[in-house]
Design goal:
two-stranded antiparallel ribbon; twelve-stranded antiparallel β-barrel; 47% strand; 15 strands; globular; mainly beta
């Protein structure tokens, strides 16, 4: 697996496509990520009744493993509830305590291929971090793109590989508001209504 050392930056741009004859509309992110080059994350912005309340974000790129995140649909995106993540068809283990009262305890823990990751957010609309030993990928709101979009400004630090980046980037198209106390408060009526479990499944 290719790696990159030191610290470097990248940008993710939002995109949308319109529905065509046999194609659903798409929305997501795309960008050139260092020497890993192009990456695309796509999801369908439309509610699809046959999906039984679930939604999917899919990441692809020549140098990346295919990453698929599936979870309960919330605000037009998959969420951390009933969630599952696969990379090149291999499932990662996800753990999330929806009842934690401290921000430092409201993190998403991801185990994959012998690595243990911690994914966290400092607040709604602010920076998000994916960390494992010696590695950090940060994505935060970047420059404004008229009329109403915002680019993602990414920083990779340490011996970052394509798996690290795939996880961090696909999670940008996931509703992770519940990682913050403010997001948890806003989502609590929804969570109670849906009887969500403590952990992602």
């Amino acid at each position: 697996m290719e790696t990159s050392s030191a610290s470097w930056e990248f940008e993710l741009l939002p995109y949308r496509t319109k529905a065509e004859k046999r194609e659903r509309p798409k929305a997501g992110l795309e960008g050139s990520v260092g020497h890993f080059d192009p990456v695309v994350v796509e999801r369908c912005p439309l509610h699809r009744p046959l999906e039984k309340g679930m939604d999917t974000a899919r990441l692809s790129g020549p140098a990346f493993p295919e990453a698929v995140f599936r979870g309960k649909r919330r605000s037009g995106r998959p969420s951390l509830f009933k969630a599952e993540l696969t990379l090149d068809g291999r499932r990662a283990e996800l753990r999330f305590n929806a009842r934690a009262l401290k921000r430092e305890d409201r993190v998403l823990r991801i185990a994959y291929d012998g690595w243990e990751y911690v994914y966290s957010s400092v607040g709604l609309g602010k920076a998000k971090f994916l960390e494992r030993e010696g590695v950090r990928a940060t994505i935060e709101p970047g420059r404004k793109i008229p009329p109403a979009d915002i680019a993602g400004a990414g920083t990779a630090t340490g011996l970052v590989d394509a798996v690290d980046l795939a996880i961090a980037i696909v999670l940008e198209e996931v509703n992770t508001d519940v990682l913050t106390l403010a997001g948890a408060a806003l989502s609590s009526p929804f969570a109670l209504m849906q009887r969500f479990p403590d952990e992602a499944e």
